[in-house]
Task: structure prediction
Amino acid sequence: MITLLEARNVGKRFGGLQALTDVSLTIRKGEVYGLIGPNGAGKTTFFNVLTGAYIPDGGEFVFNGSELPSGKPHKIVGRGIARTFQNIRLFRDLTALENVMAGHHIRTKAGLWGILTQNRFTREEERLTTERAYEMLKYVGIERFAQTVSKNLSYGDQRRLEIARALATEPQLLALDEPAAGMNATETAQLKVLIEQIRHDGVTVMLIEHDVKLVMGLCDRVAVLDFGRKIAEDVPAEVQRNEAVINAYLGGGKHAA
Amino acid sequence: METLIQQILNGLVIGSVYALIALGYTMVYGILGLINFAHGDVLMVGALTALQTMMFLMGVAPGMSPIAMLTIALMVAIPVCMMIGFTMERLAYRRLRNAPRLAPLITAIGMSFLLQTLAMIIWGRNYHTFPQLISTTPMQPIEGVFVTPVQIFIIIASALIMIGLSLLVNKTRIGRAMRATAENHRVASLMGVDTNAVIAFTFVIGAALAAVAGVMFASNYGIAHYGMGFMPGLKAFTAAVLGGIGNLGGAMLGGIVLGLVESLGAGYIEHMTFGFLNSSYQDIFAFIILGLVLIFKPTGLLGERVSDRA
Result:
């Protein structure tokens, strides 16, 4: 198995709160990797540090064999990591299509000169971007809403659009922050199919999720965070039996469960 | 009747200039939430640079055609202003991006003083006659209504620039990045947009518009000096607020409406006050409008761009 992402002793502190302590984990190419833990365990902080939204206090990320720059989100996207957000953060006043096209920005080059002269390269690039954006919308199943302003989409479709926008950056690693939050059973089932399809198409997936059934049914391996530390990392069946994990979730003493 | 048509025409001319300047205010506000009070002074630098270029050209090539001379002057003034816009953002505003709102605002006022003082050192404190390269001989399309070629040029050029800017923002890769950044610059950068580059680009485009507006303004009044940016800057800010700051269509509409109100007001103020006030009081209209908008419709005619921040 080829390693895609390696986190080495990543730490992050907010004032007096140690949000992440020496978190190390390894994600292999082609797998679906789950990151779970009680509320406030540091899962989203891990995503924020990974994608450059926060600068870590210590440690590093090695992606595809070389270190990721810290604090430069767009460069990290350029290296092939894309994400979605726990609370949806679309470009609300842009149409669904424009959202996805904006996601494709990093893979395109047209500069001011090309835009002013509308030369062949620029027009061709814009045409391909549009075409690709439609493909992405179709991929997640909302192409009929291409011209809808994104804030007017239904909640489930907004979640899908976020995934389409992330995929438009052409990532190797897609980080999904609670994609099933607020979804009903049908929508969650459709989401599971979509994530499996994404993995099948060669994108490695990292997943924060509270829906235990979804995590256990979807992930190849799962890491558990508790108070900013990794307390377990294994295949789902083993993690479910892990005593430290059970304690973290149930808050029980040593003999609980 | 002639007065009405005449004042509407004058209003359209000055309104187009206000609109061009207001676009610069509103673009920067839309993306950063910053009122760049130095924007009017960029206009002044544009006008004075153009003037300097024209003087130079008249010296070395006196026989050059006026249109060519004006074009070259613009080709010099626009890049100079773009560089000023870029430098302001890079050196002053970027460092303050996460500072409390008051800090960049005060810095902007400081930038304004800095530019004015530099201009005073370079060009002196005197009023300069701005060469009127496009004819200012009035024509009479309708009996009693006068219009000069330079006014026609201003209206047409502004319209073209505004159409171009709308296309740039709504139909191109960089425009999409601008709109994404304006909505939420953190998310935009997490989606692969180099937001620093986009913000710098916004300043540069705004400054280019200010340069053009400066040349128009000086051509229309035939005069240029280091303090000339203050009033149009303030009026254009009013126009941007009137249309809904952060909103491009609003800046265009606000500029035109303000120009019309001001011009009609100047034309009729004597009648309205029974000769107590005359047309030299025309500036009060802009500020009455600013006051009314802020009291009754703070989001402006077309609505402010309020985006939720990450």
Notes: The two ends of chain A are 35 Å apart (CA to CA).
